[in-house]
């Protein structure tokens, strides 16, 4: 039987042990475990990689500690603007939303964009409007309220800065969630979802919803979901770069991830990381930051839930 | 002295000779000539590639026959949502706007995004808000009104379809403008701008504003500006793919453009084209459609303004 695998992340960055309690760590680990189990169960019963990444990312979006879906940070106007994407490595089809504000699971809207819109990327109020036509429930602002995020926003406003999912001044996290999967039929898929930057202005879009930048899947090479300083990940076309290093230079997944994450991104200050899978089921969870919330599970027995290096 | 060059496009597609009058053809050619001359003059006097592509694209945006800036098509709500990007091959810095509605020259806002926002991509009302803070004049809807575009929109609404810049039922055009330039210092730059699809809904974003998809520049490889079926150009990460074929496989600009435009894109129905330059000043104006409005001018004496094959 072919290998099947899934890997997920809940964001990367400076995750200080000093601000982490055993209880909080346990909560994060439970959130990761629940998401990986949901995705893996789909793969185990013969489901598709696309279904698996959608389910895993939905689970992460529903978990209030991660900056995506329910746990999305506040923007400058006190609202929520979420970005997400999904890509099917079998067909190279993709769906993405940017600046969507009122859906529970942006990744599920991405799936609908991919399958029913005739487009790849929808943005802003238009993306919410499309979601409505597809029968997605419109959530009120209350749904996204958590005390932690509200406090972060108030702090960010006081300091007049745009923040990456800070939990305190010393810690820096790139709040994003994502998943990559390889199913029993050998198909790869990737999905990424984020609430973006605390106190963000001007409809800023990061790398998460951009196929090729924060999200990419191609059965011939790999599936990638990124988390980090979005602007630098866009400029370096990170996810597709790894695919090209494999396809055009013959590198392994590990070699390609190493070059991009530990060399190319480091050189330009591109802090962050990614989860990646190739068609053989090899898993990479690479990051150049202090930590990355991450987990993986493979039919060959590998099963991990990790935060620090 | 080093070669310096510029190439521009005003969109690709089925440009029927039967619906083209000598007067109209002359107008298009004059629009292209004016834009290429503006960009070339900047290069000739030692200006930067970024300045040259910004000036050339601004000129094309001001020309009402091209679907960008003033000539932008109507969206489903009777408004205008423009997408654009600029990228500096020297620094890999980029700026982009998506769904911006009230500025005269979206490409100039992209330049401000790149230099002053700390971000790469801004969208929707937020992008207009940013433009205001940067001192850009807010244009009224009248500015974008042309009888031709209004008629196209009315027809599209009657047929209930989302159209690519149609001029009549038989013709299909991908209305976008773009420019690539190589300056005397050996720096490459690219810019693209579009009004998107007639009657478009749901805040659809195409490839034009996405670095790596419709726009890319890297001094080590090439500068690219695309025009075509945006969704397929996003999924194939067209502009960065050409760069990777050069960097990782050692192909020439011509070989890389040939593979992507005439093979990869054709296989998935990705009609369209692109203008491209490498660091030696080689110019490619490649398309798989019936025609592409295009022009180029190089210090080695090449000077062309063309529409058909």
Largest sheet of chain A: 9 strands, mixed
What fold name goes in the CATH topology slot of chain A? Answer: Glutamine Phosphoribosylpyrophosphate, subunit 1, domain 1
Distinct helical segment count of chain A: 8
Assign the CATH architecture of chain A: 4-Layer Sandwich
Number of domains of chain A: 1
Give the percentage of residues in beta strands of chain A. 25-35%
Taking all Cα atoms into account, the compactness measure Rg of chain A is: 17 Å
Regarding quaternary structure, what we see is: homodimer
Distance between the termini of chain A: 32 Å
Structural class per helix/strand content of chain A? alpha+beta
Number of β-strand runs of chain A: 16
Mean pLDDT of chain A: 93
Give unreliable regions of chain A as ranges: 166-171
Q: Give the overall form of chain A.
A: globular
CATH class of chain A: Alpha Beta
């Amino acid at each position: 039987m072919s290998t099947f695998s899934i890997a997920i992340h809940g964001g990367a960055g400076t995750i200080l042990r000093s601000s982490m309690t055993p209880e909080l760590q346990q909560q994060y680990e439970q959130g990761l475990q629940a998401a990986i189990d949901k995705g893996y169960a789909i793969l185990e019963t013969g489901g598709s990689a696309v279904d698996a990444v959608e389910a895993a990312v939905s689970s992460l979006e529903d978990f209030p500690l991660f900056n995506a879906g329910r746990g999305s940070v506040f923007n400058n106007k006190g609202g929520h603007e979420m970005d997400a994407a999904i890509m099917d490595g079998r067909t190279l089809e993709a769906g993405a939303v940017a600046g969507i504000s009122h859906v529970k699971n942006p990744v599920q809207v991405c799936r609908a964009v991919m399958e029913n819109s005739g487009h790849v990327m929808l943005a802003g109020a238009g993306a919410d409007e499309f979601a409505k036509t597809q029968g997605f429930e419109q959530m009120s602002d209350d749904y996204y309220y958590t005390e932690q995020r509200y406090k972060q926003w108030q702090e960010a406003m006081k300091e007049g800065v745009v923040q990456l999912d800070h939990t305190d001044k010393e810690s820096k996290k790139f709040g994003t969630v994502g998943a990559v999967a390889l199913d029993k039929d050998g198909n790869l898929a990737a999905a990424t979802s984020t609430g973006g930057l605390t106190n963000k202005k001007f409809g800023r879009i990061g790398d998460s919803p951009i196929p090729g930048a924060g999200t990419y899947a191609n059965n011939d090479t790999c599936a990638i979901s990124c988390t980090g300083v979005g602007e630098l990940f866009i400029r370096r076309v990170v996810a597709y770069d790894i695919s090209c290093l494999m396809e055009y230079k013959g590198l392994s997944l590990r070699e390609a991830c190493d070059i991009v994450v530990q060399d190319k991104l480091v050189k330009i200050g591109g802090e962050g990381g990614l989860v990646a899978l190739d068609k053989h089921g090899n898993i990479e969870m690479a990051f150049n930051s202090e930590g990355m919330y991450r987990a993986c599970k493979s039919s060959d027995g590998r099963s991990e839930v990790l935060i620090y290096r």
